[in-house]
Design brief:
Strand order of the largest sheet of chain A: 8-12-13-7-14-15-16-17
Number of helices of chain B: 12
Radius of gyration of chain B: 23 Å
Structural class of chain B: alpha/beta
Distance between the termini of chain A: 59 Å
Radius of gyration of chain A: 24 Å
Helix content of chain B: 25-40%
Distance between the termini of chain B: 46 Å
Largest sheet of chain A: 8 strands, mixed
Oligomer: heterodimer
Number of strands of chain A: 18
Strand content of chain B: 25-35%
Number of strands of chain B: 14
CATH class of the largest domain in chain A: Alpha Beta
Number of domains of chain A: 2
């Protein structure tokens, strides 16, 4: 009978990490250089990987193992933000890096991958466990998965998992089509759709905040919450990704995945346990409770935007249509604001305002929960700061933390109230370095914990509410640009809230 | 020199301190001073202890475990003396506008005033949070006056490596645990990353299958790490025994070796862990792996211990076994 590892000490040790190989498709690409390899190196640096850990880089460019190691070393040196480069740790880590060149559509590539995996399994005792990571063009996801299946690599001595980067389709039908192609080789439980927002510490902290404390949950419903604003703002423009952005737009790039996942986390029902499927079931239920709007409702509750040129800090900034690779008549949205409603007992009648955009005044991601005012205003200052509503703000970036704004008496004579803020700052309260989202998510995939990954039904539920908006916007000709770079978006978005007596926060 | 210390007065001084910190804070509404507190942290140190180094350790601990810190400096024998001062420990987190501050109180006491300490410390403890006592003084640990101070704490942290006879202190610590004291030893904490790496080796199913072949455990240590070596040996032997693998344990000094070298061997399996400067090298049969392992600063060890305010069965078992193995004749 196999014995249990007797040396584990869960009170003090980090999670148990099994031996495995990671095979990265698109190893020559930006994501591998900027995010994946620095994250893997940091995990090795922090002793989080097993001794026989191996990475097999896969791409079309011909390269030897040593050339791949050199390239990855440069990437780690350049893109590791807060990790010291240690030559000895790198040497040990690099001895587990291998490379296979080939075309994703070519069956020979998969034979070579199979041979390399067998070699690595023998030499580094990876136990046949393989995590395939698709960091390629989305159009190649299905081909790569089917190539693996045809070569018999979807199954082996150990477990086989597949990590897929967004976008998961470009509409509901394509998302379903992609899933069904992946399922021909991998079961849904082995498909890990990565949404790096869910790997951020504060997003995970939302679960701790809501379900680890008894005092907030009773307030978390339509009786006490007036409305919720979720903002994902970028101060930069499209930064050379104009052609991609022109096809995708802010709605599909941010709201369909990241912001709806954040909304699901903030609004979901408590899960019965912290097991992956239990948490994901509740997220999925919430996404399915979002009302899919009719075209008329969309015109009232969704606002697209596109930034125009402006001067920011004395510097001329181009508009979207002036960006490289962008059609001068482009109708793509670089800003999107949507008022969603959730059709369940907890949230009926509470608007969830989601907005995202490029070239907004600052880079900030936050959730602001505005509570109803006190039922009776017994203090005089009805329109002044003394009537400010209670706000709970969950900041995801750049300063992760939670603030509660409430009223307090101004010191001195008289009963004048003023809003004050009680802050919990994640970075200052826990001085340790927070792992990057990719470190968290890669480790989760290796360990086999899909809690923070998106499931097929969640992807489909998101598309079900986003696709009708896309369709209406596609059929409408907008008078773009409708906001200047460096401002908080189009006036129509302000008007959308004003109709309900609400105002966008300026984070 | 006599002296009394009134906790009420200290609490008033703390209150005044926050008012003055608030006044000094910069103007924007969202800047200012944030008070943070998650425990009361009482430090017992000899007056000869390096004040600056101790202050730096406490300051480095605060971001992870913000606390009201009470530093009691022991003046030794002589005329009865007791005095106090109050100040704030502040830091500005990188890239942020708010200054984070913790309270710090320093009390100086002679041995003859030690009996008064509990009546001062108790009213100063922050309600509803744990009181962690870090005893840096080996001398005090042996005094009868220590018992009532120890009784106030939710957890007592010591460092057996700081004791002159490290082996001898293990049975005393084991006895404290049997009395119900929640104890932490920084020598044990220093082993966490080592133990974790050893556990990680046997997460590999192939190596785990070979574990029953281990017949010998050899722990070599350099001079200041004797308690550490006994802990490591006892923990490995206990863990192996738990899965029915009897192994012969040797704990031996190695004058010129690294701080610690651990070898598990048997037919067809050899696992070796050794420190080389700031790195840990793990060799499993022919496969070698190297990972970053800086020598843990005291505040990092304290950070780990302050995060565990509950019984730690693995430590308590290893302590009992280490005490028994180090002194096989004792009960």
């Amino acid at each position: 009978m196999p014995i249990e590892n007797p040396f584990q000490d869960p009170l003090r040790f980090e999670r148990r990490v099994p031996e495995c190989a990671i095979a990265i498709f698109g190893a020559h690409g930006d994501l591998t250089s900027r995010k994946l390899m620095p994250a893997l190196y940091r995990l090795a640096y922090d002793r989080r990987l097993s001794a026989g850990f191996a990475v097999i880089g896969i791409s079309r460019t011909a390269m030897s193992d040593d050339q791949f190691r050199e390239k990855m070393q440069e990437s780690v040196k350049q893109f590791s933000e807060d990790t010291t480069f240690d030559a000895d740790v790198w040497k040990a880590f690099a001895s587990g890096l291998f490379y296979v060149a080939g075309d994703i559509g070519d069956a020979a590539l998969y034979r070579n991958i199979g041979a390399k995996l067998a070699e690595v399994e023998q030499a580094r005792h990876t136990g046949g466990n393989v995590l395939f990571y698709l960091s390629t063009q989305p159009s190649q996801y299905a081909a790569a998965s089917q190539g693996l299946g045809a070569a018999g690599l979807g199954k082996g001595n150990g477990w086989r998992r597949l990590v897929v980067e967004k976008p998961f389709g470009h509409d509901l039908a394509s998302a379903r089509e992609l899933s069904s192609r992946l399922h021909e080789v991998f079961q849904e439980s082995d498909v890990y759709r990565i949404d790096h927002y869910l790997g951020k510490e504060t997003v995970q902290n939302i679960l701790a905040f809501r379900f680890g404390n008894g005092i907030f949950e009773p307030l978390w419903n339509r009786r006490y919450v007036n409305h919720v604003q979720i903002t994902g703002a970028e101060s930069i423009g499209v930064e050379g990704r104009g052609a991609y952005y022109q096809e995708t737009g802010a709605l599909a790039d941010m709201i369909q995945n990241h912001l709806l996942q954040v909304m699901a986390t903030i609004a979901m029902e408590p899960s019965a346990s912290f097991h992956a499927n239990s948490v994901r079931d509740e997220r999925s239920k919430l996404l399915r409770s979002i009302h899919a709007m009719t075209p008329d409702e969309i015109r009232q509750n969704a606002v697209p935007g596109q930034y125009g040129p402006a001067k920011i800090g004395g510097e001329d900034v181009p508009g979207f249509r002036q960006e490289k690779g962008v059609d001068p008549q482009s109708q793509a949205n670089t800003y999107a604001a949507v008022a969603f409603s959730v059709e369940n007992w907890r949230w009926a009648g509470v608007p969830f305002y989601l907005r995202t955009g490029k070239r907004l005044p600052k880079r900030v991601t936050e959730i602001a929960i505005q509570f109803n005012p006190a039922p009776l205003a017994i203090f005089e200052d009805e329109d002044g700061p003394g009537s400010a509503p209670n706000l709970l703000i969950v900041r995801i970036q750049p300063e992760e933390g939670i603030s509660l704004k409430f009223l307090s008496k101004r010191p001195g004579e008289g009963m004048t109230l003023r809003p004050v803020s009680m802050d919990f700052n994640y970075g200052s309260s826990f001085g340790e370095r927070s792992p990057s989202a990719y470190e968290t998510l890669l480790l989760d995939a290796v360990i086999g914990d899909p809690t923070l990954y998106t499931r097929q039904d969640m992807v489909e539920a998101s598309w079900a509410v986003v696709e009708p908006i896309q369709n209406v916007w596609r059929e409408t000709k907008f008078d773009f640009p409708n906001y200047a770079a460096g401002t908080w978006g189009p006036a129509a978005a302000d008007e959308m809230l004003a109709r309900r007596g609400h105002v966008w926060r300026k984070p | 020199m006599g002296g009394t210390v009134a906790p009420e007065k200290i609490l008033r001084e703390l209150s005044d301190l926050w008012v003055s910190l608030g006044r000094e804070a910069p103007a924007p509404a969202d800047a200012g001073v944030l008070r943070a507190c998650s425990m009361t942290f009482v430090v017992l140190a000899e007056e000869s202890d390096d004040v600056q180094s101790l202050g730096e350790t406490i300051a480095a601990l605060m971001p992870a475990h913000p606390a009201r810190a009470l530093v009691v400096r022991l003046r030794g024998a002589g005329e009865r003396a007791l005095s106090e001062r109050v100040y704030a420990q502040c830091w500005m987190p990188f890239g942020q506008r708010k200054q984070i501050c913790c309270e710090q109180i320093e009390i100086t006491a002679s041995d003859s005033a030690l009996a008064d300490l509990p009546s001062i410390v108790l009213p100063l403890a922050v309600p509803d949070f744990p009181l962690i006592l870090w005893c840096r003084s080996a001398r005090l640990w042996g005094l009868p006056e220590f018992r009532p101070i120890e009784a106030m704490a939710h957890k007592v942290v010591v460092d057996s490596a700081a004791f002159a006879d490290q082996k001898a202190v293990l049975p005393r610590m084991a006895e404290a645990v049997t009395r119900g004291v929640l104890l932490g030893d920084l020598s044990w904490t220093r082993l966490t990353r080592w133990r974790e790496m050893l556990a990680q080796v046997f997460e590999n199913r192939q190596y785990l299958a070979q574990l029953p072949r281990v017949s010998r455990v050899y722990v070599e240590f350099a001079e200041p790490f004797e308690a550490l070596a006994w802990y490591m040996g006892a923990w490995i032997a206990d863990s192996l025994a738990d899965v029915g693998v009897p192994a012969e344990l040797t704990v031996a000094p190695e004058a010129d070796g690294p701080s610690l070298r651990v070898t598990l061997s048997g037919e067809g399996i050899q696992v070796e862990l050794a420190r080389q400067e700031e790195r840990l090298t793990i060799v499993v049969n022919a496969l070698s792996h190297c990972t970053n392992l800086p020598r843990p600063a005291e505040h990092l060890l304290l950070r780990e211990e302050a995060g565990i305010v509950r019984h730690d069965p693995v430590f308590e078992k290893a302590l009992a076994s280490a005490a028994r193995l180090a002194y096989p004749g004792d009960k």
